[in-house]
Design brief:
about 40% helix; single chain; mainly alpha
Length: about 140
């Protein structure tokens, strides 16, 4: 019996998500059998890029370089969302507690210890990073 809708049940959605989760997080093909792999882009279509080689085609905000995006992202990875607002000293302590690499700690030591930062963008701007404008 055919249904009038092409939507899946919640259980089916979860199963489909589970099938693709490895490929999405790995950024590369994870199938052992070649026939399960997605087909590459056609000659007349743009190449699909998951940033596996470090290029961020179309993913770099105006006014920022790929290096800026990568550095800000690395700093954010060791600070998390729950830390804000925080002073420079608190941000450094959190990053040290999460065993951030030396490059991140060096950058965070450049923040004023007694200044409070509302979010990552404020801290990034204080570090001399280029601002991204979304709107």
């Amino acid at each position: 019996m055919e249904r009038g809708s092409d939507k899946h049940s919640a259980r089916m959605d979860d199963a489909l998500e589970h099938e693709t989760r490895g490929m999405m997080t790995a950024g590369r093909d994870t199938h052992a059998e070649e026939w399960k792999s997605a087909e590459p882009s056609g000659e007349d279509q743009p190449a699909v890029d998951l940033s596996g080689d470090g290029s961020l085609h179309g993913g770099v905000p105006d006014g920022m370089t790929e290096a800026d995006v990568e550095e800000r992202s690395t700093i954010a990875q060791y600070l998390g969302k729950e830390v804000w607002p925080a002073t420079g000293a608190q941000l450094l302590a959190v990053a040290q507690g999460r065993q951030a690499p030396d490059a991140v700690l060096v950058r965070l030591r450049q923040l004023r210890a007694d200044t409070s930062y509302t979010n990552l963008q404020e801290a990034w701007s204080s570090l001399g990073g280029t601002e991204s404008h979304r709107f």
